[in-house]
Every structure is written in structure tokens, then in C-alpha cells.
Description:
The protein is mostly helical. It has one domain (about 1-105): Arc Repressor Mutant, subunit A (Orthogonal Bundle), CATH 1.10.10. It has helices at about 5-15, 25-30, 35-45, 75-80, 95-100, 100-105, and strands at about 20, 55-60, 85-90, 90. The strands form two sheets. It has a two-stranded parallel ribbon. A two-stranded antiparallel sheet has the order 3-4. β3 and β4 (about 90) form a beta hairpin. α2 crosses α3. The radius of gyration is 13 Å and the shape is globular. The chain binds a DNA duplex through α2, α3 and β2.
Amino acid sequence: MADFFNDVYDVVRLIPYGRVTSYGAIAQYLGTKMSARMVGWAMNAAHGMPNVPAHRVVNRQGLLTGRFHFSTPTKMQELLEKEGIAVVDDQIVNFDRFFWNPSFELL
DNA sequence: TGGCTGACTTTCG
DNA sequence: ACGAAAGCCAGCC
């Protein structure tokens, strides 16, 4: 297991409550050796990892592309709505407002 | 060793 | 504006 998975999990855990981020943002934060796909790949391995709010990680459009990987496809949306994030048609409303950029917030 | 895959992103047609 | 393709890198046959 590569360490970079752990890095991804760490960044995801740092996402504040009621905020979301994108795969690309995490990739950009971790470095050039990281690609957006790798973040998704890392999240795939996040199954069984506690305290990893994968529901706060969406694609650049704010679309819940990974919802199907949860226990139930609607679980991701329910978790986001529970945190005060409106989700319509599997897409986060006002995504730019809820967006949390690690490269900026953790700078 | 070599090639396929993946919860993405960007760009060209 | 929409669709298709390439690029990215690590893990797993």
C-alpha cells in the first residue's frame, strides 16, 4: 500500500464539516506526481477506512460521481444534505460556495 | 515484464 | 454546446 493513499485520506479527513472538495484539488495539493484519477483510485481503496468522508469528495462539477460506490447510491447524497449541502440531480447546489480547496485553506 | 483499469480533468473536433 | 479522446500514475493480474 503506497503512502500516497494515506496522504489522500489525511486531506479528506481535513475537509471541514459542511464543505466539499474535488479530486483534482486534492491531486494538485499532493503534487504533480498525483493525478486526479489516482485520487479516485485512492478513494476506491478507502473502503473500510474509518473517518474518511468520501462523500465530501466529488468531481470538478460538484457531481456525485462516486455515489454508486457507497453502501447505497443515495447514502452519499443523504450525508451531504445532512451536513447542510443541497444536492439536486446528484449535483451539489452552489458547489463553488461549498468548495474547499486544500491548497488554499491549508496554505 | 507488460498491459489493463480506475470515484478525473482538459482539450480538440 | 456536445461528444470523443488523450493524459495522468499506481495497483493488480
